[in-house]
């Protein structure tokens, strides 16, 4: 990172689309070094955790790179997290410093007060209870900046960052990714951004956000920064700033094409590649995109946070709806989840993956690590898919119950945990309902306590009031007299999904 940033010098690293202000790689390096010097003055040492809780802006990547310069661990948080999530990540990662946006600083400070912990809080902007980011950059002189050198690594497999990955049982787990993972992400040339204008909306909370930032820096790209996705604004940004490469989540792609701006009102002549991920792009959507923008490559990828990013990637000649072929440094096999037998082409089973850049493990959670990665080093993805005769991977279903909504991975258990606290709720199970634009919506099945009079809308409102926006029960609530159960006494989620399929069969 140090070498790449210095070598790009006066190239434009970031362009803030709201203000049209630009920042060169030399200016980026200056800010990173000043931030690293400030971290050193706070006593930050190798292995300490530096958390970052913000949206995308020209300074959001600065503390992450600064942390790597002093051998600390950077740890992105969700800017929109609620208080229970803040309490959880504070306890899990015990950061020494937290960099916050003005939006997230209040929930962070409230969480710190409840946990009785006292990391230093830095805000991008201003807040009474936090140090200003602009102030810490003024905390050192030019001579200190000129003499600064990054700390050498003792072990390339040392943890560089802790990402977060939700599980079906509740709160996010910490995913440890090594410096070796970061190095190979930076060296990977699966798609080229060299000297091109690029655009994405993934924050650093997503592995795609970290991966794209690392690739952009090492390849010398110019990143166009805009805080949130909007269908027409995206087209305007592409045309105005001559964007060549854009990453969109699957739900963004669905909204992008269905809005009707691309290819009609805006021809987008500069655009070369749309890279999609987060959920499967349906073949018909990919066909429509190619028809609407025939000069653009529409490429789908498959990956996981635990795997350090992409493990397969489409090429222009691959079939619509496939996730492409296996990436460099990755092994994949399809396994019958019941028998453990390795399956052949066009046979569906669980996707097992082995990669030299996969996670070191779940942070402070050896049991979860052991249940995900077997003794031979294969990660059991929980996804069902198959390879066709040409070696292209197709994802058809998931074993895991995570609900994917606009790039978020929602744990049904978290929603169930909130609903069960409502005085009217006896038992609850949350499943996913497919949605044409957003990927999936959560649907709650509920049995009420005897005599309870609450309506479906009251429970929908209860979740909306007590959880972040992406957890809302957008598919609604269905009351049952009794749940179906499996032979072992568990709620039969498969039966619930069949019931929902019949109920929603006329919806798109």
From TrEMBL:
Identify the InterPro entries for this entry.
AMP-bd_C, AMP-bd_C_sf, AMP-binding_CS, AMP-dep_synth/lig_dom, ANL_N_sf
Keywords in alphabetical order: Ligase, Peroxisome
What are the residue boundaries of the AMP-dependent synthetase/ligase domain, all occurrences included?
6-363
What is the predominant subcellular site recorded for this chain? other
UniProt KW Ligase keyword? yes
Q: Where in the cell is it found?
A: Peroxisome
Annotated Gene Ontology cellular component terms: peroxisome
Q: Which residues form a coiled coil?
A: none
GO MF annotations, alphabetized: CoA-ligase activity
Cross-referenced Gene3D superfamilies: 3.30.300.30, N-terminal domain of ligase-like
Which residues does the UniProt record annotate as the domain AMP-binding enzyme C-terminal? 414-490
Q: Identify its protein family.
A: Belongs to the ATP-dependent AMP-binding enzyme family.
Which protein, by its recorded name, is this?
Answer: 4-coumarate--CoA ligase 1-like
Q: Which organism is it from?
A: Temnothorax curvispinosus
